[in-house]
Every structure is written in C-alpha cells, then in structure tokens.
Design brief:
It is built from 1 helix and 8 strands, in the order αββββββββ. It is of the alpha+beta class. The chain has an 8-stranded antiparallel β-barrel. The longest helix has 34 residues. About 16% of the residues have low confidence. The protein is globular and about 35 Å long. The termini are far apart.
Length: 131
Amino acid sequence: MAIYINSFVLFVVLLLANGNSPAQSSKSKQAGKHFEGLWLDKKTSRHLEISFKDGYATIIDWTGKFQKRESGDSYKAFLKNGKLIMPEDIGHHAAYGEIISNDQTLIYLTKSIGAGKASAWDRQIFTKVRR
C-alpha cells in the first residue's frame, strides 16, 4: 500500500512540474519579443543582433565602420529577472554584461574584467532597427 501512495505522490509531482513548462516557455517568448532583433548604437555604429534558441540568447556584436556581421563577436546570454545576463569569461576576455530592454531601446551595461562590485558600469544605448 505504501508503494502505491509513493507512486501516486510522485505522479502528482511530475504532473505539476510538467504543468509549469508552458508558463516558462511563454515567459521566454515574451522576453524574445523585447530583446530579439537588430539593434544599433548610432554614436558608435555598433550593432547587436539578438536571437533566442534552446533557453538562451545568442548575441552577435559588431561595429559597422570596421566589421561586417560575419566577423562580429558572438556571446551567449541568459534571461534572469527580466535582463539578459552575460557572465564574465576571463579566458575569452569577455566582461560581465547585462542588457535591459526599455520600449524600443536596449541599455547595455558592462563591467571591466576582474572589476569588483564597487566599480562603475559602462553604459551604451541601442535603438531597434528591425525585428
């Protein structure tokens, strides 16, 4: 009898866990609407192209004056608390970064590699070019 009760509890837990996945998927789709697309910082002609796949965002970053999209840098970012978070990667010389969506603009914040919490953020503003 105890085996049946344990099996039933396990079944209910699995059923509830599967019930939450559409809600999480819709949150990712909603975030995609805010972040996905082609973005431009007009002052520096820096471009970002953001797309979502398999639970993370891929960011292609290039400067139009000096590079083509194909030769841009590629980063992986994860959605956390409504922001795209790019962890620091010392091996690839990538600074910690956060991207915040605000209407038709993105605020791209970065900290220097190895910088402490008290260090200042570098800030860049991007406007949406197209989806």
